[in-house]
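Same chain as my last thread, 663 residues:
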Amino acid sequence: MKGGTDFPYFHAPCFCLVSITKIKLPQINLLCYHFKEVKTLEGIIRISRGGTGFIDREGAEESIRIPTERLGLALNKDKVVVSLETKPRVLKVLERNKIKFTGTLEKSGKKWFAAPDDKRIHLDFFIKEIPAGAGENMKVLIKFLGWDNPEKNPEAEILEIIGRKGEHQTEMKAILLNRGIEEDFPPDVLKEAEKIKREISKEEIKKRLDFRKITTFTIDPFDAKDFDDAISFEEYPDGNFKLGVHIADVSHYVGEKTKLDGEARKRGFSVYLVDRTIPMLPEVLSNDVCSLNPKEDKLTFSAVFEFDKNGRKKNHWIGKTIINSDKRFTYEAAQEILDKKEGLFYKELKIMNTLAQKMHRGRVERGSILFDRDEIKIELDKDGKPLKIYKKKRLETHKLIEEFMLLANREVTEHIEKHCKKAGLDKLFVYRIHDLPNEEKLAELAVFLKAFGYNLNLEGGVDPKEINRLIKEVEGKPEEELVKTSLVRSMAKAEYSTKNIGHFGLAFNLYTHFTSPIRRYADLLVHRLLYGHLKGEAISKSEIQKYQKMSLEASRNEITAAEAERESKKYKTVEFMQSKVGQTLSGIISGVTDWGLYVQDKETGAEGLVKLSSLRDDYYKTSGKYRVEGTKKKKKFQLGDEVKIKLIKASLNDKELDFVFAN
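reply #2:
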């Protein structure tokens, strides 16, 4: 059981206790407290797994470090007030980051505690009452009740018994609940979804451009159930052709201020764990009513482009449509047709693929950064046990669909920009933005790359074409994945905003997300704004503020969904690696810290730690940010080194792997 601290505690928002004087009077003792005013800082505290707190100060290179015994009543990511004295301490918690946690029940004497799954919550929760069915080693969802003394543990109550620790269903559900992600929809939301009419009226069809007789198909993963997008193709006698990007018209079915809309906004994204999908919309909508299933009339919002026979774009049209998809392809099936040069819609696929390749080359020439990376997939049996971890290759058909989605996203944004300017409308839109990369991180990376014989020229600022040149140079080399990962980590995080700054990674001045409204709430917002602009609707100042708030929410929800997805993969990766404990593996050093070297297994991509304390031939210390060096023998280990490692531990509890060097 992780307990509270063992020091006398006192706090005040702006004053600090400096001394205590005892005064004796005939019948009473008085303690006189002396205070001095201190400088304070407000901010979000980050607490490491070891229990040390960190808070950033504007303009300072290093974060303020706060030891465990001076964290007071703070938990990870809480908004706090910190004193800026010689030994900083947390004076006050202004706002809790969260109040619901998942954890494992443990008993200490007659008392019960919940050990949090999040190892950055540095102490356990005291549970006063244990419901029937709960017991040791059971995973539970708890609610924080209060905490007024750091010498004691915070109190919490059990909201739900999730299941026995270590069981597949229990662990996957705990990953979701710990991030506030609910699998089940509220009954009133489901009821509203069931009432939505599936039939498309003749009046509605008359309002739309009819593509039902035009060749149309979808290309998606083999296990996809919700089809957001479809592609149509129509060739003219002169060799020119029309390409349609048709997106499910979710906004037609999910109105503003409905229960469905409220739930979709709260969720923000569909979440894809290693074994399941938690949809943003109820399945009656995501897999049926809105999904562009084959051989069914479907309502869509479309961007339609006309190209000449040489693949030059002549014009475009954006508006509401109705389609009927002829075929549901998987990426693999469509690729097989291209490879064999025969099969259903081969001619259409060939022309599309040629166009996509041309578009890709043009995009790269303009500075769009090439971060093509194989996806790590985990194959599970029916009980959730991992059977295989493998890299899924990116096919031409993946790139084909990607290019057409990028085209639609960019053209929709440019269309709105021109339309609002021409019509004299106030411009309000939700952009997908990507800021410039962190120059300090890139400068550090440039120093590291020199050790490998690579040069990253940063004179005159960050040039995406220079980054692309480097990526091409490392292709096929052992350090390729490492260099790409390091570049990604130096980049800013893409996000949603009503204030446009462009998209650095794609080299687009204007960009949005229009193509996935079934699984991304931001795209649904874009559809509503796009339709409003096309109809010439006026926009109020309150609308601008509302959409900026929703953009920020969508960005936060995106991070939450990504964290859940990563954690489920990490858990199953560690579970898979348990069968390899004791084996010698080939790896590459992927990270350097003061406490050890992170090494990535080449075959599975699984990452684990080689502790510096396990290197017994010398005393090793970090030498710069990318290597460690022995103090006597001067032997070096650095980022990118290929090494032989032995797996000695695979901890599901910590979701961590421990390696030692094999020699």
